[in-house]
Structure formats: C-alpha cells, structure tokens
Amino acid sequence: MYRRVSILLRKHFVSVLILCASIVIPFSSVKAADPAKGKALFQTNCASCHNVHKKLTGPALAGVEDRWPDKKLLHQWIHNSASVLASGDKYANELFNQYNKTAMTAFPSLSNEDIDDILAYVKNEEKNTPGGKTAVADPNANETADKGNDNSLLFGIITLILAVVALILMQINSNLNKLAGDKEGVPTADPVPFYKNKAYLALIILVLFMVGGYLTIQGAIGLGRQKDYMPEQPIFYSHKVHAGINQINCLYCHAGAEKSKHAMIPSENICMNCHKAIKEYSGPELTTAEGKKIDGTAEIAKLYDYVGWDPEAGKYTKPGRPIEWTKIHNLPDHVYFNHSQHVVAGQQQCQTCHGAITEMDEVHQFSDLSMGWCINCHRTTKVQFADNNYYSIFEKLHQDIKDKKIDSVTVEMVGGTECQKCHY
Amino acid sequence: MEQKKYWKGLEELHNTDAHQEIVKNEFSEELPFESEGLLNATTPRRDFLKYLGFTTAAAAIAASCETPVKKAIPYVNKPEEITPGVANYYASSYAIDGEYVPVVVKTREGRPIKMEGNTLSTITQGATSARVQGAVLSLYDTARLRFPSIGGTETTWAELDKQVGAALAGLGGAPVVLLSATLLSPSTKKVIGEFLAKYPNSRHVVYDAVSYSGILQANEASYGKRVVPSYHFENAKSIVSLGADFIGTWLNPVEYARQFAQTRKINAQKPEMSKLFAFESHMSLTGANADERYTHKPSETGAVALALLAAVGGSVTAPAIADKRVADGIKKAAESLKANAGKALVVSGSNDVNVQIIVNAINNIVGANGTTIDFAAPSNYRQGIDSDMTKLVSDMNAGSIGAVLVYGANPAYDYFESQKFAEGLKKVKLAVSFNDRNDETTELCKYIAPDHHFLESWNDAEGRTGYYSFGQPTILPLFKTRAIQDTLLTWSGNATTWADYLKNEWVSKLGGQEAWDKALQDGVVEPATAPALGGASFAGDIAGAAAKINSAKKGGGKLELVLYEKVAIGSGKLANNPWLQEMPDPITRSTWGNYACISNKLAKTYSTQLGDDYEINVEKKVLKVKSNGKEIELPLLIVPGIHPEVIAIAVGYGRGANVGRAAAGIGKNAYPFVSFNGQTFDYFTTDAAADATGAKETVALTQTHNSYEGRPIVKETTLEEFIKNPLEVNEDRRELKKFGPDFRKDATLYPNFSYPGIKWGMSIDLNTCFGCGACTIACQAENNVSVVGKEEVAKAHEMHWIRIDRYFSGDEDNPEVVFQPMLCQHCDNAPCENVCPVGATNHSSEGINQMAYNRCIGTRYCANNCPYKVRRLNWRDWNGADSFENNLYDVADMNDNLTRMVLNPDVVVRSRGVMEKCSFCVQRLQEAKLDAKKAGHPMKDGAAKTACQQACGADAIVFGNINDKNSEIYKIRNEQQVDRMYYVLEETHVLPSISYLAKIRNKDAAPKAEKAPAHKEEAHHA
Fold first, then answer.
1. What are phi and psi of A32, to 5 degrees?
2. Is any Cβ of chain B less than 8 angstroms from the Cβ of A340?
3. Coil, helix or strand for A226?
4. Mean pLDDT of all residues in B935-963
5. How far apart are CA A350 and CA A252, in angstroms?
C-alpha cells in the first residue's frame, strides 16, 4: 500500500501562485458584472450539470450568450425553463429535446445581476483552453529554492574535510614529537597506530553514539508520520479532474468541512448526482505516479459497480456496496481536530493544509501533520478578530489594537496553543 | 462560629491508631508483584539486564512495525439528517419500573451515547438520576438476548409465532395471564387489552418488585380512588417523611428531589426554606438530608404514624413511644405541620395499608389535599396490587392458569416465595418471556420473545394523568429482537405494525400528523395550562386502621430487619450495569454488592475486634442473618445513624448467573425476607437474629480512600443563625483580610495571571446537593470514565472524576450528614502543576487545569500534591488503550465491541500509567465556543453546560464564565450568595475555580456547648 513518490510541487508558493492567478485573472476583465462572484455562483448552482467547455447533463456554456437570441429570454430560461418551453420558443424546445427532455432546475432565487455575473464568468472562462491550467509552477524553481536553503550538505563536507585535516595534523604532531624526542635522545614509546589509540577509539565511539542517538530520536519522532503518503485507492479518483479542471467546489463533496469535525468523504449518492449523466471520461490523459495509464471511463464503471447502477438501463439494479477508501490523513486518537473550526471560524483555505489539491490526480499527504506544524501555524495565523463578534469579549486585546500596541491577534494570543485546545 | 467536627467514618471520629496509620501512608502503594522482592532474588543484576534487554528489543520491534493502513468508508446513501461528527438528539422516555423521566437522547453516527433530562417536561424539568444516566449503557449490555428462542434454541420469529399461536389456541379456555411490572404506556396497555380480549378469563397482573400496593389500597379505602396521587413537595414548607426515601428511591425520586430542591434554595435576601423531618429505621438518602432525623424500629412505624396523627389533633389515642427522643421529635414535627397547615406534607414508605390510611388522615388534617397532594391529576408510577400477585401464584400452583406471559417482571428472583412461583410456572401450559435477558424468570420459560431496548423502540408513557411522553427508536435494533407490542399484535391477528398503531393512536388523539411530529420532536404532550390541584374528601376508617396497627404482632426477636433499595441499583432491574454497580452508595460509600448495615453498638456485640477502626479494613466480618425461617450470609458494615436494633439489607443483589457478568454473583438476594401480611408485602421482619460466622469478605468502600485530616472543608449553619447574621458562616474568611484587601493578589509572591477572554467557574450549593450520584454517572458517561471492579475499588483505584463525599457530624447514633461533591477545583494556582516533571498538567488562559494524557509519565506527584485528592491514576489498562495486547483488565465486559459503542467519540480513552481528572467537560466547552464563533456572537451564558450540571435535578451546580458580568455564576458569587459563598481550603491560596455555598439546616440553633462532641479533638491536625 505504501507508495512514496517524490513530489516536486510543494512548498507554499504553489498555493500563493494559484491565489494570485485567481485574483489577477478576474480583475483583468473588470466589467459591470463581477465574474469573481459569478464563479462562486456558478460552482454552487450550475457546476453539477454544466461545464464551460464540455457537455455534461446540460450543454457546454461557452458561447451561450451568442446562441440565445435574447438575453432576457435567457434570464427567463434560467429562472424557470418550463415557462420558456411553454411559450413555444423554438431554440428552447430544440435544446430540451436534444438533452433527453431533462428539465433544467429552476433558479427563481438568482437575480438578473447574479445571472449576469455567471455569464461574465463563463465568458471569461471561454478564453482559457479546455482543462486550462491557470497556475502551474515551474518545478525547477522549487528545486533551486530547496537547494538554496539547504546548506547542510556543504557544512557536512566542510566538517569532514576539517576532521581529516585535524587527523593529519595530529599524526604529524605526534610524528614530529617522536622525531624531536629521538633527536634529543629522550626515549619515547613506540607509536601506537591510531586504530589502537584509546583516545581515538573513545572519540569515535562518542561520535557514533551521538550520531546514532540523533538518528534514533529523529526516527522515533518520525514514527507514524506519513508526509507524502499516497496510497493506491480502490478507484482512481482524480481531484485534479474534479476540483481542478471541472472546478467543483470542495464543499460540494466534502460538505462536512463547514459543519463538522470531519470533512467527510462523500457518500456514493453524491458521486451519482453527476455520474448518472457523466458516463465517460473525456478529459486529458490520466496516469498514475508510476506512469501507468488509467482509463477514466473504466474508473467510472467501477463506481457504477459499487453503487449498483446500470448505466445502460439508467437505474439501480443491485444494492450498493460502500467503497473502502484508504485514509490518507490520519491523526492520532489523542488529537481532536475540527474542520469547521478552521474552515468557518478560521476562514482557512483547504489548500493551506492539503496543498495544491486541484493539481493532484492522486492525493498525497501534503503536510506532515505533526504537532510542531500545527503549533507553528497557530502562532502565525491571525484570527478574525475584528470581524467576528465572538472575540468582542477580549477587551484588553481590542484596547491594545486601539493603542497600536499590536496590529493583529494570532491564534496563540487567544489561547490557541494550549494543550486542551486539541487534546482531551 | 466554632468549627464543627466532621468525620467520614467512626475511625476518623475516634482517631484510632489504624486511622492515623492509614492517613500517614495514604499514598504508599504496594507493588503488584508477587515475588519476594527483586533484591532478594539470587541473580538480580543479571535478571535485570535480561529483562531490560528483552523489553528494549520488544519495544523496538513493536514500535518499528509499519503504520497500519486505515480505511475510510463512507455511506452508500447518506441519511439526510446524519452528519458524521455532529450529534443528533431525539426525545424519548425512561419508564423502567414505573419511574417516569422524559429524556433527550444524544446520538453520534447513529449510536445513542448519552441521555439528558427533557427540559420541556413540567414534571421532571430536565432532571435525571443515576439510573437514568446509566440506562444508555444497558442498551449495549452484552448479556441481552439476541434472538427469539424456543426451549433454549434459536428460532425465527415466524416459527415462534406459529408455535405460540398453536399453544394459545390449544389452551382450551384456560386463562391467559400477562404478568408485567408497572407499565406507563397507554398504547401498550391497549395492545395488551386487545390481545387478552381474544382469550376468555384472561387478565393482566401488574407486579412490582418493590411494591406500593399499600398506598394504592389505602387511597381506595380513604378516598375511593385506587391511585397514587401527585405530590407537590415544592408547595410544602413542612415535610415529614415516615421512612419514605423520596429523594433517593421512593416512587419517582427524580421528580420529588427536584421539587424539594426548590424549597431549599436560599439566600440572605430571602432567608426561607422548608423543614424536613425524617423518621426511619436505617439511614436513607432522605434521612441524610433531613433537618431533623429520628430512628425507630420498623415495627414501630405504625405507632409513630399514630402518635403523629394524635399530635396533630387526630381522634386517636396515641400509643406510647418508648424512645423519648422520638417522642419529642413527633411533637416537634406535629407542631411544624400544624403551623404550616396547607403547606405541609407527610409521606410514608410503609407498604402497610393501615399505616397509609393513618398518613392520609394526617395529611387530611394538615390540609395537604389539594395543596401538596393532587388527586385531580394522579400519578401512574406504581400500579401493582400485591394480592393480585399472590392469587396468581396460588392459581398457577393449582394448575388453573393456561398461559403466563412475562414482560418486565422477574418474580423468580424478586418474588418473596420465588420457589413457589417457579413451581407454579411449571404447571402452566405455556410460559413466554419478553424480558431482555436470560434472567431468573426467563430461564424457566420455554418461549423467549425478547423485547427491544427502550431506545430501539416506539413507545408512549403517561407518568401523570394527562401528561404524556414519547419514545422513538434512536438506533436500529442491535439484535433480532422485536417490540413486545409487535409480538402481541401479531399474536392477536392484527397486521398493523406497532409503529403504525402508535402513530394512528396519536394522530387521531392529537388531531393530525403535524401535531404528532411536533409531539415526537418535543417528546412530551402536556395540558396547555396545568390543571388546578384537586383534593379529595377523606373517608378512611381511622379507628379500624389504628386497631389493626395496635394489634399487629410486635415480633419476638431482639433485632429487626429492614429491606431497602440502594439509590443506584434500585429493585435490581438495572443490576447488570457496571456504572451503577460501581457508583458509591450515597450513605455507605460502598460499591459492588450488598451487606448487612448495622450500628456500631450492635457491631461491638459480635466481636471485640470490631468497632471504630472497622471501616478501614476492606475485609469485613461475615454475619449470618436469620429471619422468617430464611438466612443469608453477608459482610457487616457499620453505618452511623442506623437504629441499634436494626439490620438493613439492600435488595437487588444476588442475581443469577445469566443476567450478566457485572451482576452475577455480586451480593446476596434479600427478597426472600419479604413477607405477605394478607393484604400487602412487608419489607421488614421483626424476628431477626444474626451471628458472626468467622468468615471475612471484601466490601469495597471509597470514602476512606482520602483524608482531609480534619481540615475545615464543609461549612454549615442553621437557618436561625443565618437570618441573624448571614456572614457568620464565613467568619473564618475574615482571617484572609490580614493579607490585604485582595487575598488573590496580596497573599502571594507569584504574578497574578489574567484571563483575557473566558474564565470558567463553578458553584456548588451544598444545601441542594442531596448526594444522589446522578452527576457521578453523567460524568462517567460523558467522559468515558473507566470501570475498575470491586477488587480495584478496594485498592482505592476507582476512577470517578466527580465523587460525592459524605461527612457525618455530631453524635454517632444520631449523626448529621452533609454531602460535598468533589471534583478537580481547577485552581488558578494549582499545586499539581508545579510538581509535574514533564509539564503534562498546566493551566489554560480560560482557567482550566489541563491534563495532556500523552505527556503524562505517571509519576503521581500531582496526585500526591493535590489538596482535594481528585486526581486518578490508571493503574491498569481498563480500556485496551495500551499499545501492548493482553494488558487489558476488564471485569465487567466494558471492552466488548458492543459495549464500547457507548464511548463518547469526542473524548479519548486513557491508557495505563496515565493520570486523569475532571476537565470541566472541555469537549462541551469547545463545542459551545465553536458554535458561538461560527455564528459570530459572544458565548451566551448557559450555552456550555458540564455533564454534572446538566444531570443535577436540584440545579445545585451552576457553571459559566465569571468574566461575564451577566452570567449566573457571576451573580451568585458577587450578588446573590456573597454570604454563603466560600472556597474549600481557601487559606492555602490555591485559588480554586469552584466555589461552594454553605449548607443551612432548618433546625433549632444548637446550644454552643453541644458543638464540641466528646472526642479526641486535640489529636487532630486542626
């Protein structure tokens, strides 16, 4: 089950790049309608049936504004497609028939501005090629950064050279001593070869003991830690395809992240919301980390087998079986971790802990999930001190901000590094 | 005020040598090795090196194993209402043995893990008891029957239905009897009625193991109504209990204790409280909480009632009461009752019809009817009539009964002539049991059709007439059981399922599906406005009852025997519940078993070795108790305050081998001592004798495990003195002023820590803590506190995070009792924190004394340095939390995969060698804070409740943020209870976060001279 693969795309700047990209791109085309808002609306309301570039349950949305004769009609269609169909509109009826008479969900709650936002987003997206990679980091840059920071090899070599020099000098010293002694006629003991010299042996044993001890302790600390753990899963489920290319909101599947301590691995009925319609994989080629080619359509068929769906007949034909995913992120039992605390109260992005999940075909553990890693983040991360009224009780800290003694409040300052915040 | 002396046992009162020894060696613990000591071994050094090498190698191998692969398995189709990690709550009802407590059940991922009281019920108002708190564990009892069976072999329900159907058809008109304990469910009774209607001459016999037939029959004789009225202790200013333990075990104690508590809340602005008199034979929980308590022999119960009637002005001649103290007490009680006419109440625990008629007469005179006793909406808590049961048993033996269907009753164990019942059952053609386990009665039945646990089943309950509560499945049935109602519906040929049947009943009663849905959500349906209390006109034959009482035989023996129920175990129905077995009895502080309670005076007659230091030794002398021609052997236990000529034995023990591992073989069955007086069962005998057998047996007591060495930790005063000078109770706090105006800051060299956001604090009112133990079990359920078993309790290894210390004071024959819940005080200047070598226990910015289990290395320094003795070491691996296998120590099947389903997933189980203690239910605090953060508002007072606080029916525990000036805890400390509030061992400057409110007794102020009882005070470290 263990497959450790060196992942080059790591470190924070990948996510920073993604963030930058997602901020920069929308702002490059500022209009009355807000594509950034449209993106959120699209992902919440539309993404389960529509994609910008591909047909899903419904048509690809690229060029949708050009296809519809009238923007007003399009608004009406989105608000309530049945009324447009009833009015006998030709294009609408053709569309309806083309898509197996699957009625589009009515969205009476979306305002015209909302719809314009979505359309702006769609228009924006049209420019990107299908499967567009908005943010791909240069792996080499990462490597150089790694090397630049890591001087331990250099130090090691220098230490080794110095040690050899010291050894040689000491040998020379003892030889010279002997020679000097011989010259003055002072009898000196026969030289002891250095491998029999007790001082050397003691020194070597001491060094070995220290190095061995250091390695043992490091090994012991690392026990149970599984950074980069990337097990093979029963279905080759690609987060890159779902969350990256198709931009399905993380919370669509991991709905628990907002409500519960568990983010929740989605139940199979969530998969089937989309995969009743999406029977084939037509995206970019999928390969495992070892380079094995994966047939996406066959993986979807595996899902059908688990859930008992017959795609030909279009109905469930046998009782479903649960999928036994291999759990990647394992915390010890004595740690209490709550997703909703971090996602809702802390306003953290999933990527902060899980890395560039939208770029991972196979998910691996991005962070080492060690206590030091948790604590470091709690020391530096700022809480929503001014925005969340919960913190109004911290009167002294508010006063300190007012007095300009501090400029922000970190998790640590409100007790976020105390034992019983996570251990009980 | 002069400090009163408190003692937890006679050994402390008399400060014996053995007591001094045990105090000196409190923390020493013998190593659990059987060898003669490592140093005496022949090659200790070599062996040591071998062990060292082996263990290092073993640990290395164990540790270098690969991290196990874990699976995450989601639902195929997730139920809409379940979010893993978030609890769901369902309203339900606890209605075992006629006790009525509407509850709310907390479920996690579909598993019920905790029960709380339903605050929407006006009867219990969210109160619970230890048994209610413990009942959730019984759902996961490994001894539950898992399938229907015929003659001991598993069968299918279809086959069982077929065979029983044929057997019922073949009865040939012989009567069918459904034998049950009191049922509160009106719909179940309807189902039973419809089933029995199919068979001529059939009947439903209600049999209560601990009977209240006397009250029912007396009310029929006095008022023409065979009911238990509803009692309203909250309206009473003067209460007299004649052996009725209404706080602990009598009828529906959860309800009464809550009502009584409302009359005991007091502060200096409103210095009023009720007065409780108790006349009893042994020390009950109610007696322990009484303001005035008197003891008499059980055979004198009638005489005491008659004397009281005469004293309040009844037209009877008062019999002579020999004991002057009791006679004076009766006079006092009568005066109090008369002075509070219309606000007075007398209750009696006697099951004698005549005594109850006399009690009715007293209540009638003091104006209780319609004020503290309500006949308009009577209670249904007990319905069994004893003569119905005795008649059934003789009918069975006569062979005239065709079928007996047993549901929730267990007469083969708890009927006084259980042998006769068993023989009778053999003569019955068809014997069916619906019981949940293979208990003594079920073993005798051929057909076993196990019922669901109440948390798996639909139900309704009518505790008080017109007041309904409901039950709904909180989990799918764990086993192949079937609701008894479904079984009976099937057998009566009704194809409706019980769920539909109940729904149809209520939809038509409430007038719609929506109303039914709301009823299930709320859990209760009650009258919109409480109906006016109704009286009843008394028409009892006082003279006749008095004559019968006077002519009753007084017994020839020197000793008398009284049977009682323990608060945790009750009649014995929940006996196989390890939590309840291990809960220390409020009075004796003993766990796991029953014993013969006797006075110190009586104990000394058995052996000169017995006496004052007797409580220290866990090995107790065994007594052979004889009465009624029966005898049992039980260890004796000295209980101060018990009448010197009385032996008290708890029922509910001595269960059969198949009822479960926790109950089997624990204690002895005392039910055979019950007798039938022709009308009702008597729970006392007058001809007891007892001899020492020479054997010894362990009784696992907990109170002797810690010593405060006489330091003043309890404060109390009398009502009179409190009114005169409210501050007097805290006189010693003035001493603290000598450090400066602010004791917290001025009395220390250490810096003063600030608590910038929240600072948690708790207040415990000693006046309304009755010692019932609900908090102990609630804490155990909430925090996964381990069960350790009798042997380990005897070694002082019990794990309870909150214990209720019981202290006696005064005269050893008539002591006063005070209960003090003791839990981690979360000291701001905690002595435990300084001594931990690894920093495993430290302080949070919210004032919580935190315990990081994974840092703890088990030095026990913290426990030794804790002035409150609240830290608990895991001496063994109780939970299988160790890395090494086969270390598990489990005496009660607490680690079966089934039982472990009760564990709270938000709290870890602790491994061996780790210290633990109260965490202020930090998981609940964190959850409440997170909810507030997510909603974006400051925490509301009351949003975070600890488990003990929520369980307490008397609201003795208040918890909250003392930095919040609007919180209840802040108001109690700074506004309402400034006079009574104190901290335990405040002078040590540990700055506890828990404050206590001094106890106030409503008794005449004792003359000063009486305050220093004649004992060796000077020997104590004052």
1. -65, -45
2. yes
3. coil
4. 93
5. 13
Residue type, position B350, single letter: S
Q: Which amino acid is at A108?
A: P
Of A224, A396, A419, the CB nearest to B852: A419
Nearest to A266 among B74, B757, B758 (CB): B74
3-state secondary structure of B255: helix
The pTM of this model reads: 0.84
Beta bridge partners of residue B1001, listed in sequence order:
B718
pLDDT (average), residues A31-56: 76
Rounded (5°) CA angle B484-B489-B490 = 100
**Distance of alpha carbon B340 from the chain centroid:** 31
A70 bridge partner residues:
none
Which of A339, A390, A418 should one mutate to test binding to chain B, selecting the residue with the greatest count of B CBs within 10 A?
A390
- Which residues in chain A have their CB less than 8 angstroms from residue B932's CB? 390
Buried b (16+ CB within 10 A) or exposed e, A125-151: bbeeeeeeeebebeeeebeeeeeeeee
Which one has a higher pLDDT value, B457 or B707?
Answer: B457
Q: What CATH superfamily classification does B214-379 receive?
A: Dimethylsulfoxide Reductase, domain 2 (3.40.228.10)
Which phi and psi angles does B235 have, rounded to 5°? -90, -5
Phi, psi values for residue A270, rounded to 5°: -70, -45
Cα gap A68→A55, rounded to integer Å:
17
Interface of B with A in 899-918 (CB under 8 A): 906-908
Would you state the pLDDT for residue B199?
87
State pLDDT tens for residues B369-415.
989 999 999 999 999 999 999 999 999 999 899 999 999 999 999 99
* DSSP states of A163-187: HHHHHHHHHHHHHHHHHHHHHHT--
- For residue B272, report the phi and psi dihedrals to the nearest 5 degrees: -135, 145
How far is C-alpha A35 from the chain's CA centre?
24
Cβ-based neighbour number of residue B831 at 10 Å? 17
- What's the topology of domain A31-126? Cytochrome Bc1 Complex; Chain D, domain 2 (1.10.760)
Three-class secondary structure of residue B777 per DSSP? helix
- Residues A1-8 have a mean pLDDT of 38
DSSP H helical segments within B677-789, as ranges? 719-724, 743-746, 774-782
For B100-111, write each residue's pLDDT tens digit: 999 999 999 889
> Encoding tokens for residue B220?
């029929």
Distance CA B29, CA B232 (A): 50
Kindly state the percentage of chain A with pLDDT values over 90: 35
Pairwise CA distance, residues B413 & B571, whole Å: 11
The torsion angles phi and psi of B630, rounded to 5 degrees, stand at -115, 160
Q: Which residue from A minimizes the CA distance to B70?
A: A327
* C-alpha–C-alpha distance, residues B4 and B1015, integer Å: 12
Q: Does CATH place domain B149-210+384-453+478-499 in 3.40.50.740? A: yes
Q: Are B355 and B301 in contact (CB under 8 A)?
A: yes
Q: Which residues contact B984 (CB under 8 A, 6 or more apart)?
A: B713, B825, B868, B992, B994, B996
The mean of the pLDDT values for chain B is 88
Question: Which CATH code is given to the segment(s) B761-1009?
Answer: 3.30.70.20
Chain B residue with CA closest to A225: the answer is B67
Domain boundaries, chain B: 149-210+384-453+478-499, 214-379, 557-705, 761-1009
Integer Cα distance of B318 and B823 in angstroms: 49
Q: Please give the ipTM for the structure prediction.
A: 0.84
In this structure, whether the domain defined by B557-705 belongs to CATH 2.40.40.20 is answered with yes
Give the contacts of A208 (CB within 8 A, at least 6 positions apart). Answer: none
What was the pLDDT predicted at B612? 56
Tokens read off for B362: 């007293």
pLDDT for B566-607, tens place per residue?
Answer: 999 999 899 999 999 999 999 999 999 999 999 888 888 877
